[in-house]
Specification:
Blueprint: E1 2-6, E2 18-21, E3 35-40, E4 45-55, E5 70-71, H1 78-93, H2 97-104, E6 114-121, H3 125-138, H4 141-152, E7 158-159, H5 160-164, H6 171-179, E8 183-190, H7 209-223, E9 229-234, H8 240-253, E10 257-261, H9 269-279, E11 283-285, H10 292-304, E12 309-312, E13 324-330, H11 347-357, E14 363-368, H12 373-380, E15 385-389, E16 400-405, H13 406-411, H14 420-432, E17 435-439, E18 449-451, E19 468-470, E20 474-476, E21 483-485, E22 498-500, H15 505-515, E23 521-524, H16 534-543, E24 549-552, E25 565-570, H17 584-596, E26 607-612, H18 618-624, H19 628-641, E27 649-657, H20 660-676, E28 683-695, E29 698-707, H21 710-729, E30 736-742
Parallel strand pairs: 9-14, 9-15, 10-12, 10-13, 11-12, 13-14, 16-26, 17-24, 17-25, 23-24, 25-26
Antiparallel strand pairs: 1-2, 1-4, 3-4, 3-5, 6-7, 6-8, 18-22, 19-20, 20-21, 27-29, 27-30, 28-29
Helix pairs in contact: 1-2, 1-11, 3-4, 7-8, 17-18, 18-19
The structure holds adenosine-5'-diphosphate and zinc ion (ZN) (2 copies).
The site of one zinc ion (ZN) has 8 residues, from loops.
Length: about 750
């Protein structure tokens, strides 16, 4: 047995391992991720390394391969923790160790530190004044300007840029003066800081009893040595962020650090400022708009203790703090917490694993107005501790929500995108100068087909997900591959209004302008936000009341608060309901609840209209009542019935192939491989074409495995990985690649 070992643990060097022999006495004691002691280099100095691969195949002459000296078990450094976390991710989600390490280690290349230079006088004032007079006499204008400035501010250091810029003095002149001992040029290194902190610390809010209860419970558990996961279920404005701040305060008092994850899209200036106002210079932010230098510096600041708190998206989880004490995941239901590249990890599970690996452990706090089924389920089973915050502290009353039945509208002869009730309310808001948001739910796949007269949706008889329209007049199930021809007549009501739904933001904008030519409309979608900064520009224009109506996709439901929005219209509430995956109802409920929550943030009462062809669907009814529990109970029953996560676990084996037939054959082969070693209680589905069946001429298909035991899925994954690897080694798998996705969140 041979072990590939890396010694230099940096992002760039992980793919340059050295090979060692595993001596008999260490067999069984060494695993991927193990720290080992090895002889290194010509002098065979002992070094510490980490095993990233185990193999039977020597890379060269086995006689020349050195032996591992020992394995060291203690977890001491941040590197040990990163290594173990990467090994866990590799095993838990399926990927190479190198890909896992790349994910876990901060990506930024070493960057030079920034320096500020300052200029000050090196002689006493009397000498300087004499020199100045001499310069005036000799008409040495540049020297005169600089000495004048220095004499006027004898206590200050003058920034170098000011001297070369405003005073317009050449750098040669500065150098000459410095060489003559007249002035002194000092350099000071500093960290790049992405946001200028406001130093004014604001008074802490006096927490409500409910808020205080959460903080007390978490503190008490911590004191007793328990490191738990907590779920705070609380509507927007119920005071979750204030609780986070109090919890972080406590952790910092204990000399530890805090990681706060926020979905990138919700990482607004307003949110950041809340933390900055409270923690000043001790907090920093990571996000995709930072330069490599800024990113590098934030990681350095975390490592060296220059900050205590980092705020950022998924990847901020891997901030190298010396002693993380709490990990907070806000809006924990967001699909952005799941990585879409290998390893396809979920930040929530990875945070919990990380907290176990930390020498002193960390508390994990999840927060959401609409928790993921996963988290709420685990809170129900007692795995997480649940807290509920039910009051909105910002004032403002919850909006009145009405459902408009689009089947009824058709019967009344209304063929427009707007129901009569929505038209009436838009009219009213325009006349009163209040604002309206029109949200089109485009989350689903445009391919689903329904009857516009009765709302009937064509579904797979085996999987209970919507069928998608494919070319050639076929309806296809993306889970099991079931197919049927497209029908022209609705099998339920015999109407001929059977079609796939196609309406975009552009059409809605046009329609608003047609109905109300005087209305000023802003539109926000993928097209209008392509340019950098355009997203913020549109939102602030709307906040400044430069428009009456904002039309948009899911982008408009997050972030900013608009106190003057008193009407929200949700135009195609069904759209996401028929996306062909098992999370369709959950996503619909979350979107509708969030969108509805946009109305009535200010003092004025708000209205929400949910337009739907399926007004009786539980996710729509529960969203209209803003009743999470009602939704959860229905949804968990469905997941239970069909063995979907979180009640069971599911692995999607994703195959990508240049050739469709070859890909399908290989997918079938993988299924057979698993069936030959079938474990009790597992169910195989597929292969079937993926919901996006082809991208860039690469065909995509999937095999699904459901099983309540996660370890069983890992067993199958390992089986396939080994098989795939052996084919790759023989050069037989050149046009096919395979990825694994455990408990998938994003459609494939
Ligand atoms: P969430 O994170 O759940 O949306 P926030 O923590 O942002 O809620 O709280 C909503 C608003 O209520 C904020 O303006 C916040 O400053 C205020 N707030 C929160 N807790 C309190 C409190 N205990 N007393 C007074 N105001 C509070
Ligand atoms: Zn019908
Ligand atoms: Zn099916």
């Amino acid at each position: 047995m041979y072990a590939n070992v890396i010694i230099d643990i940096s992002h760039e060097k992980v793919d340059k391992p050295f090979q060692y022999k595993v001596p008999d006495k260490l067999t069984g004691k060494i695993d991927i991720g193990s720290p080992v002691v090895i002889p290194f280099g010509r002098g065979n100095t002992t070094r510490k390394g980490f095993v990233i691969e185990l193999t039977d195949e020597p890379n060269w002459d086995p006689a020349k391969i050195k032996e591992i000296i020992d394995v060291s078990d203690e977890v001491v450094s941040a590197q040990d923790i990163s290594m173990r976390l990467a090994a866990w991710m590799k095993r838990h989600y399926g990927s190479t160790m190198i890909a896992a390490l790349r994910t876990v280690l901060p990506a930024a290349k070493k960057q030079n530190r920034q320096v500020h230079k300052y200029i000050s006088l090196r002689m006493d004032l009397r000498q300087a004044r004499d020199l100045y007079n001499e310069c005036v006499r000799k008409k040495q204008k540049a020297r005169e300007r600089l000495l004048k400035e220095l004499l006027e501010n004898p206590e200050d250091r003058i920034p170098y840029e000011f001297v070369t810029g405003k005073l317009n003095i050449a750098s040669q002149t500065i150098k000459a003066l410095s060489d003559q001992g007249i002035i002194k040029v000092e350099s000071e290194e500093y960290y790049r800081k992405p946001v200028a902190a406001e130093s004014s610390r604001y008074g802490k809010a006096v927490l409500s009893d409910e808020q205080q209860h959460i903080v007390d419970t978490v503190k008490k558990d911590y004191d007793e040595g328990q490191r738990n996961t907590y779920l705070i279920h609380g509507i927007t404005g119920s005071g979750k962020t204030e609780v986070y701040i109090a919890l972080i305060d406590d952790v910092i008092k204990r000399g530890k650090q805090a990681i706060v994850l926020i979905p990138e899209i919700a990482l607004t200036y307003q949110t950041l400022m809340r933390f900055y106002r409270h923690f000043g210079d001790r907090v920093s932010v990571m996000n995709s708009t930072l330069s490599p230098g800024e990113k590098f510096d934030q990681m350095e600041r975390a490592r060296t203790g220059d900050i205590d708190i980092i705020i950022g998206p998924r990847s901020a989880l891997f901030t190298p703090f010396p002693n993380t004490g709490i990990i907070i995941i806000d809006e924990e239901h967001e699909s952005a917490y799941k990585s879409e590249t290998m390893p396809k990890y979920h930040a929530r599970e990875t945070a919990i694993e990380l907290s176990k690996l930390l020498p002193d452990g960390a508390a994990v706090v999840l927060g959401s107005a609409t928790p993921s089924l996963e988290s709420y389920y685990r809170a129900q089973t007692g795995e997480y501790k649940l807290f509920e915050l039910n009051r909105r502290l910002t004032g403002g009353t919850l909006p009145t929500v009405e459902i408009a039945d689009l089947r009824e509208e058709l019967r009344k002869g209304n063929r427009s995108i707007f129901s009569l009730r929505l038209q009436e309310l838009i009219e009213d808001r325009l006349s009163r100068g209040e604002q309206t948001m029109l949200f089109i739910n485009r989350r689903g796949l445009a391919g689903f087909v329904s009857c516009r007269s009765c709302g009937h949706v064509f579904k797979c008889p085996h999987c209970d997900v919507a069928l998608s329209e494919h070319r050639g007049g076929r309806l296809v199930c993306h889970y099991c591959g079931y197919e049927e021809p497209v029908k022209k007549i609705c099998p339920k009501c015999s109407s001929k209004y059977v079609s796939s739904f196609r309406a975009g933001t552009q059409q809605i904008e046009d329609e608003v302008k047609k109905f109300w030519p005087q209305a000023k409309v802003l539109r926000m979608d993928a097209d209008t936000t392509r340019a950098k900064g355009s997203y913020e520009k549109i939102l602030s224009a709307f906040a400044n009341k430069e428009a009456d109506v904002l039309v948009g996709t899911q982008m408009i439901v997050k972030g900013h608060d608009f106190p003057d929005v008193t009407l929200v219209g949700i135009l195609a509430a069904d759209m996401s309901l028929y996306a062909s995956d098992y999370r369709a109802s959950e996503r619909t409920f979350q979107l509708l609840t969030q969108a509805a929550g946009r109305a009535g943030r200010g003092d004025k009462k708000g209205n929400v209209i949910i337009q739907s062809y399926q007004p009786d669907h539980y996710s729509i009814i529960a969203a209209s009542k803003q009743d999470y529990k009602e939704f959860y109970d229905e949804e968990i029953a469905y997941r239970d019935l069909l063995s979907y996560p979180p009640v069971s676990h599911m692995m999607s084996v994703q195959i990508m192939s240049k050739d469709e037939e070859e890909g399908m054959a290989f997918a079938t082969k993988l299924r057979t491989l698993m069936e030959q070693r079938k474990l009790e209680g597992s169910v195989f589905i597929g292969p079937a074409a993926a919901s996006i069946g082809r991208i860039n001429d690469i065909y995509r298909m999937a095999v699904y495995v459901k099983m309540s035991d996660y370890q069983g899925l890992i067993y199958y994954k390992d089986l396939m990985e080994k098989y795939i690897r052996s084919l790759e080694d023989q050069g037989k798998l050149r046009y096919i690649s395979v990825q694994f996705d455990f408990d998938p969140v994003n459609g494939f």
